[in-house]
Amino acid sequence: MNAPVTDAKSSGALLELDGLTRRFGAFTALSAVDLTIRAGEVHCLLGENGAGKSTLCNLVFGMHPPSEGEMRVEGKPYRPVGPRDALAAGIAMVHQHFSLVDEMSVVDNLMLGRVRGILDRRGWARRLDGLAERYGLALAPFARVGDLSIGERQRVEIVKCLMLEPRLLILDEPTAVLLPDEIRSLLGVCRRVAEEGAAVLLVTHKLAEIREAADRATVLRQGQVAATSEAPAREIERLVRAMIRRDLDTLDSAMAATLGVAEAGPAEKPDKPKPAEIPAGPDVLQIDNISQRDADGATRLNGVTLTLRAGEIVGLAGVEGNGQSELGLILAGLRAPDSGRLFLGEQDLTGRKPTAFTQAGIGIVPEDRHRVGAIVDMSVAENIFLNRTGDFTRFGLLRRQAMYDAAAEMMQRFDVRATGPDARFGRLSGGNQQKAVLARELTAPGLRFLLAAQPTRGLDVGAVEAVYALIREAASRGVAVLLISSELDEVLTVAHRIAVIYRGRIVGERPSDPRHRNAIGAMMAGQAAPEEPAISEKAA
Amino acid sequence: MSASSTLLGTGRAPLGLLVPVLAVLTAALAGIALIAMLGVPFRDALESFVDGTIGSPYAISVSLNRSVVYALIGLGFILANRAGLTNVGGEGQIAVGGIAATALALQHGVGALPFGLAFLVPLLGATLAGTAWGALAGVLKARIGTNEVISTLLLSFIAVWLVYWCVQSTALLRQPMTSAATLPESLPVPEATQIPLLTGDAAAPVTAGLLAAIVLAVVVALVLTRSRFGFQLHAVGLNPTAATRAGFSYATTVVTALAIAGAFGGLAGGLMLLGEQYSLRAGFSSGYGYDGLVVGLLSRGSVLGVIAASLLFGFLRSAGISMEMGASIPTALIQVMQGLIILTVAGAAYWLDRRDAGH
Amino acid sequence: MTAALLAVFIGSSIRLAMPLLLAAIGELISERAGVLNMSIEGMMLAGAFGGAVGAWATGSPSLGLLVGLLAALPVALIQAFLTVVLRANQIVTGLGLNILVLGATTLAYREIFGARSRETIPGFPAWTPPLLGDIPVFGEAVFRQVWLVYAAIVVVILAAFVLRQTAIGIALTAAGDDPRTLERAGLSVEALRFGAILMTGMLAALAGTFLSIGDIHTFTEGMTNGAGYLAIAAVIFGNWTVGRTVVACFVFGAATALQFQLPAIGLDVPNALLIMMPYLLAFLAVAGLVGRQTAPRALATPFRR
């Protein structure tokens, strides 16, 4: 795009990106991207994970310099060397991960970097109240941020940006951690901000959000602009095709799930896969009335009871932050529940060590691959045999060569692509990392139960399919699988049976059938499930 | 992770070697400049430098004995550091080792034990005392998450003043007061409890501690590169949660690692006491623990690095003492040089690490 | 203990606590910003040396004070450059600087003073504030102090105010707890930490000059003798807050004063125990026996983008 500067100005261009490129070593994260964002619009930036969305945001916000290309704000060259320059240019950003100091109060967080000299805490508390009225974002000004809920922290982040009266507000996947209600109100705030004349750049990979809020949309694919749309709500299908280079018709429903295509309505195919038959194996895992409080005393799990049978895949659906992480840690043996018991067959595992869990036949694909699932600075081989180093030990000495040979075999079997067993785990793509983790967990001798927590997050399309196949294969040989996911469609696709967790409670259970979508969705949002069967689609 | 990369440190060989060499050269130049400023004839300075380090079998022996202490602290440091722990407590671990060694050596009957037990028993006691001192920090870290830098530092001060207390009070280890001039120190340890000399010749008093250090260096190298325990330390150091999930207990690893570092420190203290000082005095550890920590840090995790740095520091310390006596050059000169080496290498870690991250 | 003895005890506790207090508040500023500044010992020593040399050369303790501040500046600059810009290990840098400063001041002292060592150096006189000095028994014994004592109290109050009530205060807290967030707020972690270390250097230098030209009017080799580490212990025992750090300093000061008072009272407490007590108290604090400790989360961690 060689649009002259004057043209851009006349069309109300606020931010123009011209041939923006960013390389990290040999990897090109963003390649010659042209993009124009106009004042008064909500501009959605779409793309799969790893398509370059976050990199683009970080360049605009001055976190990294571009390798090539130029940025202009209102026609004038814009070359930020840090967030400070971005803020000075009227660009504010809500990051994917919170940037709040937990130890400080809400107003102190708001004032951080914004004021000089003596603090006027009362004055800022009043400003906060004013903003709260304008956008419907209520907050207790003197509460410690660390004590707030996830939704409230998100609100602090947004208020922090709004207080700057920004000309451009960037939101990098802000809805991942929010409840449906909170998402709706957030999108409302976006519209409100745009109506007041500022621009909003909303990064998402959920098509439903585009329908609700977007004026225009740009799709990134492998670091390049794959499509732009002036009327995204009416062009969902084209945008999805651009995102993944495939038609929705041929889209595996599992993949549609990660994209949230089904939620977008028009694209949804009438014949979702039939709910698979629930195998009637013996009971394997019994979660019996487990409760857990966090360090601050807040209840995270509240009497969770669930039984899984051999060969069965149970989906645990829920918006993130409703106790799934805590349950995952308990099932991995990393934390003991405050009350309740955990049985694998007849064996009581409550309060036992992780080793006991592994020996009893529990495999874990944790939601946090980098923190719990693997040691990124060790080799692939060392990670594949992390819990079985004993097999390669003689007289206390580790036989590394034997381990590397065995790992090479495993990598072939599970299609883990790397330069070799000695490659650093952190250098692998997300998909290959996850396959390596699965290789370790699925080959554990005597595996009876597998926990797969958010197993496809951050993976590309091909890897998602591979992960599903591995999970199904495990179930077919009699392993009980608990699939924790915040993507309703993923659970509907893979699981035989679905339990819904909300605020640390199992609030309901349904067979895995698309006709229960609304009922399950309502339960995930904390509303009582509508009367069965709930098949009617509500018009948007 | 090959064996050689651990032996040579994580830095690429050329730069990883160049930096310490440049640091030592810089320090040497600074030392020469200072000697010139002090007005000491350069020939005198050099003469006493050589006299104190390699000029005689005696000088070499004494320097080696000093290096042994540095090496032990450094080895303990890199072992604990493999588990992500920074043991700042060497000084205190030496101090409690010295106290335990003295107390046991002066115990009635210990001096009469056969088969070398006379010195092995106090040495074992010293090692155990150091183990306990190190493990204490480990337990706090594992149970309530106390930063081991802070706890080992404080434990060092406490231990150093414990030595002072021991030699001030006749109820503890102070020799019986016969006059007002009785020095605040313990009785000398019996001859049988002293560490035997390798040469058997007082003119070259290098002790059996050297053998112990060599054996332990090999063991530590083997543990770090080849053993499952070394793997465990590394795993816990890199990612405690994933390591725990894989069955390596975080608490056990942390306590064991700091206990071993403490054991090395205690052993070093015992060797200092029974191999060189022979009676307990206030401040006998005189900074060996802190210098040993620096040795461990400068080595960048490699056993060969520890050996090189401990030899450097051991011979430098001897040089300082000799130059003070022979050429009236204050030992402070050596302190300046040592400080410069530490700062240069510490600052250069930036480039070394950047290369590591980018390979 | 008689009232007169008590008065002397309080007076000397204050006098002994003051350098500690200045250094500890300085250290607190660095640590709140995330820098475990072990070189505080070297900074104090440089300040003490500079103060002594300056006062001796010019005959004016005030100019000595200025020289003392200047002498600590390079130490602080090196610490800041290595740990903030080059992201060197904070502990190694601190220990290295302490050895360097100990060596350098000793060498320089012998060069400058040579045979004249132990010479008395012009120092600040003691001064009794009006009104307070008129209190019977206690007036003179407690309040007759070098004016630096009163200046130190003002400095501490100022520091507490800055940390709690100003923009710099919350920025420092953020630099120590969550530097990434601070950076995203458009502030420079490096600048804040650099500045904090320089501030620590100045306060430590003030503490050092207090030792040499405020208190005993002479310089001895390595005269800080671990006072810097004591200041670090005070910050730890003070749980990284101004209020509790001040209390810790006075407790430590009183423990030191007690060493000299014990013979007068006729109590048989081992001297070593009193010297050890500050470290023991700090250790008990980090061992979780004195409430919950909350160190800044990013303490001693270099900041990487």
N→C terminal distance of chain A = 36 Å
Our measurement of the CA-to-CA distance between the termini of chain C, rounded to an integer number of angstroms, reads: 59 Å
Reported by name, the CATH topology of the largest domain in chain A is Rossmann fold
What's the total helix number of chain C?
12
What's the short version?
Chain A is an alpha/beta fold and 540 residues long.
Describe, in plain words, how this protein is organized in 3D.
The complex is a heterotrimer of chains A (540), B (359) and C (305). By secondary structure, chain A is an alpha/beta fold. Helix content of chain A is 33%, strand content 24%. Chain A contains 19 helices and 22 strands. The two termini of chain A are 36 Å apart. With 359 residues, chain B is an all-alpha fold. Chain B has one domain: ABC transporter involved in vitamin B12 uptake, BtuC, CATH 1.10.3470. Chain B has helices at 3-7, 13-38, 42-53, 57-82, 90-105, 117-144, 148-168, 209-226, 228-238, 240-245, 250-277, 288-298, 303-327, 332-358. In chain B, 59% of the residues are buried. Chain C has 305 residues and is mostly helical. Chain C has a domain at 13-224. Chain C has twelve helices and two strands. In chain C, strands 1-2 form a two-stranded antiparallel ribbon. In chain C, helix 1 runs antiparallel to helix 11 (242-265), helix 2 (40-58) packs across helix 9 (189-215) and helix 10 (227-237) crosses helix 11 (242-265). The longest helix of chain C is centred in the first third of the chain and has 30 residues, at 3-32. Chain C starts with a helix and ends in a 19-residue tail after the last helix. The mean pLDDT of chain C is 89. At the B-C interface, helix 2, helix 7, helix 12 and helix 14 of B face helix 3, helix 4, helix 10 and helix 12 of C.
